[in-house]
Recover the amino acids of this structure.
């Protein structure tokens, strides 16, 4: 069985004149990433490996999760293939994961993540929001064949706001 946990980066700031990859998180984004990561920690699911897009906003979000989930940096890598907005590179990245890994967490961008969850999960999600987490389980034993998973969990920041 394979488990894929996809997390969209937290809300980023547009107030600085920087390259897209260098955009920082807004305070709200930081707070939302803490909310979602702490809620996910209660699920007692530990990824075998965590991957992030190289964009600052995705990296910062992933570091909040890594810290709050008590994950080891030994099992964390940055991949340029995850700096993708359509989903083709992310999908290819997933299909090439090491089959020794059963649970993988990926931090990336929209529209790629929404496209992926709607392609390989069984629940339609109109839009994975910033800091949104979607967990999909597969009965497959290899990543190259994951196609028809079961969307078992969504954790979105709005769930914690009145």
């Amino acid at each position: 069985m394979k488990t894929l946990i996809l997390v969209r980066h937290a809300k980023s700031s547009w107030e600085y004149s920087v390259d897209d990859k260098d955009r920082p998180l807004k305070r709200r984004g930081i707070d939302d990433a803490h909310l979602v990561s702490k809620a996910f920690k209660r699920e007692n699911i530990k990824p075998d490996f965590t991957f992030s897009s190289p964009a600052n906003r995705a990296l910062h979000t992933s570091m909040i999760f890594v810290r709050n989930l008590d994950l080891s940096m030994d099992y964390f890598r940055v991949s340029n293939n995850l700096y993708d907005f359509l989903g083709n590179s992310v999908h290819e990245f997933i299909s090439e994961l090491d089959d020794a890994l059963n649970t993988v967490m990926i931090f990336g961008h929209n529209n790629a993540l929404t496209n992926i969850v709607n392609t390989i999960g069984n629940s339609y999600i109109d839009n994975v929001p910033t800091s949104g987490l979607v967990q999909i389980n597969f009965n497959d034993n290899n990543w190259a064949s994951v196609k028809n998973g079961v969307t078992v969990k969504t954790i979105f920041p709005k769930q914690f706001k009145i």
Notes: The radius of gyration is 14 Å. DSSP finds four helices and six strands in the chain. The longest strand covers residues 2-8. The beta strands are 2-8, 49-52, 76-78, 103-108, 133-138, 150-155.
